[in-house]
Each structure stands twice: as structure tokens, then as C-alpha cells.
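cache lookup: miss for this entity combination. No prior model stored, computing from scratch. Input as submitted by user K.M.:
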Amino acid sequence: MEEIEEGIIEEFALFDDWMDKYEHIIGLGKELPLIEEELKSDDLLIKGCQSRVWLHAKMENGKVIFTADSDAIITKGIISLLIRVLSGQTPDAIINTDLTFIEYIGLKEHLSPTRSNGLVSMVKQMKLYALAFRTQQNG
Amino acid sequence: MSELLTDIDAIRAQFPILSREVNGKQLVYLDNGATSQKPQSVIDAISHYYEYENSNIHRGVHTLSQEATSAYEDVRKKVQKFINAKHDHEVIFTSGTTGGINLVASSFGASLVRKGDEILITAMEHHSNIVPWQMLCERRGAHLKVLPISKEGEIDIEEFKKLIGPKTELISLVHVSNSLGTINPIKEMIEIAHAQNIPVMIDGAQAVHHTPVDVQDLDADFYVFSAHKMYGPTGVGVLYGKEELLNDMKPYQGGGDMIKSVTFEKTVYNDLPHKFEAGTPNIAGGIALGVAIDFINSIGYEFIMKHEAELSRFAVSQLKDIAGLRFIGTAKERAGLVSFVLDGIHPYDTGVILDKLGIAVRTGHHCTQPVMNFFEVPGTVRASFAVYNTKQEVIKLVEGIDRVKRMF
């Protein structure tokens, strides 16, 4: 997981100004839909005040697979980074990560509760899924 | 009377925050609908109070308490004059507009609303003027009725007449809509309601800083507003109510200051306005509200209205040619703001990029989710103006939107 985070930090080190950085995030956000349309149900919806986020999780061979989406592109771009880091990891790794890379690439403000874009709740929900899967495994 | 202040540079110079930078850019503050900035005189009044006068009011015989009490009570008279209330005891200090609406919903509701009664609001209300009534209706078994709006964001008076009837106990409606900018014909609506003896409460949170309010001329039964949207501090607001209605209502909260005598058997409530002001109030905030009124008076509504109308017209004229931009709220009578969506670009994304450019706008549902559902948008981008805004700032907003469009 650390390697992926370092990869993202290096990827973002290329950008000198905020414009390039945000254009990159927008680019990430515009890539293929991250979640299948039929999964965009209210059950999977995390309501932010500003933008909406859908999150789906399943367990495959001891790893948690996340897919997610948002109606706002910048939120979606940041989601794609979170998915890159957290999807395919073990429940323990997900529970224990503090996602410091977000701070290194200067996007911490987007994970601030004051933004109310659904991302804080999404990270919390990802950890809850991981916790639930771990309990299932151990049970 | 001293000469009125009508030079924008001189007005701007009174607001220290306007000279700060945000994200390396000169701040362009267009989120006045959420809260206005504060002039130096208001900021100074708060520190002066704590540095020089701080003490509790209505209780002490010592000099500080006497001074603080008269400074605070002088503001009540100033507010009375500001909204032309008949008596100063019709001015109740609250924590803000929301506090005032909850007070009326709770006290008026407890005293006068019974099972089967109806409360009428409009479809353009802020959540603060929806939820307290829903809660009241739940408690009392009453019904909440909603007057629909047109696609322009206007009320239909004929529809209004049809919706009121013998069961309508109270009408509560917004003077100026915070998400659409619509100015409602409240005087006409109050007259119609009064013909059937129905009291009307007006949410004036978005009105008092744009337009003079005369509660006697409007014949409003209740009128509520917040200090912080009119260049004053947060945490203080005003509920105006007609004396006879306020006298009929039970107190809202119990505590100190709202009583005449207390024994374990019986408490005798205080007279107006103190009956509704339990506990130590926001004294510094109240005093600073008085200074905010002085600030508005130092400019005068004539200039404020002319300047803000010009800014709104200019903003509409500059924004309307942007391809893919759609205005939300196109009522004929509008005040101080433009609300819009950009085709294919989420308001949140627009807000994030504008913020990077130092431009503060509000994005989202503006605490009016039913309005957003009606227009089938997830939210809007809202630029709302104050007396210190300039055409140059509107041009920066337009350039910012161009930038946003190129990025998405």
C-alpha cells in the first residue's frame, strides 16, 4: 500500500501550480465510470451536503474490492486516488491506514469535514466495510 | 445629519477582511447571502465592550452593569426605529433568524395551534422556515401546507388565496428568497391574510440589508432577521412581534431575566420583551448590532438599493451570454443575488475552482433542498452581493467561470 501511495506522491510532484494539479484530478475523475449504473442505488449513497458519493465493497480472496462514484468530477478524481490505494488491500491494512498521501499531495482540504463533499464519510464507510469483513473472516 | 457615505472605495476601506488574499489571490467575496463581512466599527464595538464595559445586564447596581444595560437597551430602541415598530418592547433579541422562528413556532404553537389546524409556508422557504413548523405540526397534530412556486421562482397570488381558509392558523413566508433572490409581495399577501384574520410571520434574513423594512406599513405580525447578514456579528438576531400577539404567547425558555417572581409553587413571568429573553444574552453582539445599523444608516438605503440593483443587473448581463449557463430564479422582482448552474459541471466543482481563484461563492442547495428538487438540480452556484462589492469583482467572477468551463 505504501508503494502505491509513494507512486501517487511522485505523480503529483510533477505539478508546479494548482491548475495543473486540478486538471490532472479532473482527468482522473473523467475516466470510465467507477461504479456500474445499477449499483448507483440509494443503499450505496453517501450524502454529502455538496456532492453525492456511491460506494460499493466486496471481499475477494481476503482482499476488499471497492468501487465508487460521485456526481462531482473533482470529488470523483479524489475517489479514484482513494480507490487506487485502498482497493485490493486486506481489511487490516485498510483499517490501519491514515492516508497521509492526501496531505503530501496538497489535497487535505478535500478530506476536511467542513467541505461536506461526502469524502470524509466515504473513508469512514470504507473502514467500516473493512471492519465488517474482518469480523466475518474471524467469525 | 452628516453627509452619507457613497464612495465605494471609502466603504470598502472600512472592511479589513476585503484586503486579504485567499489562495494567493485578492479575495472576491460574493457569499454575502451566507454572511456579510463586518466593518471596523462593528469589530471595534465588540472589543470595546469586553475591554471597557463587560458586566451582566439588568441585574447590577454597579456602574458597569448600568452602562452595559443602557448600551444594550439603547439598541432595542435603535432596532425599533430601524424597522419602525410601534413599541420598543415589541423587539425581542434572539440568537438569529432561526432562533426567532423557533421561538414563534414553539410559543405561538403551544398557545394557539390545535389539532387539525394548518400552517402555510411557501415552496421557496429556507429549511429554518420549514422544519420548525414540521416539528410543531407533529407535536400538535396540525398540517403543514405548501404554496407552490412557478418555474421563474415566483408565488401565484391567486393560488395563495385558494390555499388559505378557516383552518389556517398562521402563514410564515420569506421576504427575499436566499436561493432564488425573489422578492415576495409580502405587503399584499399580509393584507389578504388579514382579511381572514390570519397572522403572518415574515423571514426577513435576506431582506433587511437590501431594503428598508417598515413593520407597521407592512402590518407584519412577526418579522425575524439576523444581525450577521447586515454587517453585524453572528449569534444575535431580532424577533419583532405585535404586542398583543406576544402578550398572548407563553414564554419560550425559562430562566433568569424572564421572571418577576419565583417560588417553588408558582412563577410570575416578566413583561415584554424580557418574557422571551431568558438567560444572559449576547450582550456584545447586541451592542454591535446597533453599530451595524449605524453603518447602514451612514450609507443609506437609497444608495444601497441602487448599487446592489446595478450589480445584479450587471452580473446578469455579463453571465447570460455564457454558453451552458442557466439562471435558477428569474422572478421579475429580485434582490442582491444571482443563482445559476453550468451545463455538465457540478456546482461543487465550480466552487472549488473559483475558490482557488480567490472567489468566494456559495455552492450547493443553500438549505433549500425542496427548491433544488423543484428545479431538478443538485445545487446551484450563488453569487450574492453587499454594498462593498464592485463591477470589477463581477468581471472576475465571469472570468473565473470561463476558466472553470475550460477546465471541465
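stored under new cache key. The first helix of chain B runs from residue 8 to 13.
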